[in-house]
Amino acid sequence: MPRPSKRSRWLARLHAKIADIRRDFLHQLSTRLIHENQVIAVESLSVSNMRENRCLSKSIGDAGWAEFVRQLEYKARWAGRKLVRVDRWYPSSKRCHACGYVSPKLPLSVRRWTCSACCTDHDRDINAAHNLLAAGLAVLAHGETVRPECMSVDAQWLGSVKWESLSL
To answer: Which pLDDT score is estimated for 144?
Structure first.
């Protein structure tokens, strides 16, 4: 078998170094989050399906989301903390955390939006974080089958079902 070239060995070392840096960062971040919080709520995303998007697959792979969640899970078990997975169909970005109104359409390109019900201005990611934490706490309080019984547009519920599938 031919010996690898000098350039391919150099490239392999470079990739190993980058992987070590990423792994170290994920360990430091997950440890800090576990030590600072009693409950952590994460969205149960399908990373493998998201990687099929040709435009985003490299960025999603570089982020190491699946490895990060894996580290959070075992560190939460060690530290006696709670890690809650919120259903991926929960409308965390489209739901106003102030009044509960769900925007019918919110494309991924929209980073800031204003709730048409209460006129609250939202940053998409911060709003989603508020909603995911609230949904995670509701799952802890009521179990995995948190479902709304009867809802109106202004009802505040913390379920893990897809809002669009419900008829109002």
So the answer is: 57
